[in-house]
Design a protein that fits this description.
The protein is an alpha+beta fold. The protein contains 5 helices and 5 strands; from the N terminus they run ααααβαββββ. The strands form 2 sheets. A 3-stranded antiparallel beta sheet has the order 1-4-3. It has a two-stranded antiparallel sheet with strand order 2-5. The protein is flat, with a radius of gyration of 32 Å. The N and C termini lie far apart (about 90 Å).
């Protein structure tokens, strides 16, 4: 009988204006808590991702910060990257067939013949100007290579 009397009072609790405002307030507090929690999780994930990137960058000391970002975006488990010929000549390794390369930017410099009267940025001899630019090159991670028999270094 006790249950039945409480059950009969339920419509009054639901329809009571005070309960609506309490429910709305509680709902808003829950929504706010979930938004804060979501934001904190996003920040934590971002900081963990940043730490993983810094650890990755410390392994690739010979690469520029920009190229390290390019490598990170293309192959996060890379540990040592070199060009196709460098793997063969310097390390005695060959790139595996079907391996996917990692594209980075390499600096290039060319000398252009110029008239010293036309351009004040010429070299000391007054005949050539150095022009610097970047080209896309492909490198491979060590995991994409295999030793060349008899040539291992």
């Amino acid at each position: 009988m006790l249950f039945r009397s409480n059950f009969e009072a339920l419509p009054e609790l639901i329809l009571n204006v005070d309960n609506f405002s309490k429910r709305d307030e509680l709902s808003q507090r829950i929504d706010g808590f979930l938004q804060n929690l979501s934001s904190e999780v996003d920040q934590k994930a971002a900081s963990e991702e940043l730490l993983r990137y810094f650890e990755f960058q410390s392994k690739l000391k010979s690469r520029s910060a920009y190229n390290t970002m390019l490598i990170w975006m293309q192959k996060r488990d890379a540990t040592h990257v070199e060009g196709f010929r460098t793997w063969e000549t310097k390390f005695g390794r060959r790139v595996k067939k079907g391996a996917r390369g990692i594209t980075i930017l390499a600096p290039r410099t060319v000398k252009k013949d110029v008239d010293p009267d036309d351009d004040p940025d010429v070299d000391t001899q007054g005949k050539q100007k150095n022009i610097r630019f970047f080209v896309a090159v492909t490198v491979f991670d060590i995991s994409d290579t295999e030793p060349i028999p008899g040539k291992e270094h």
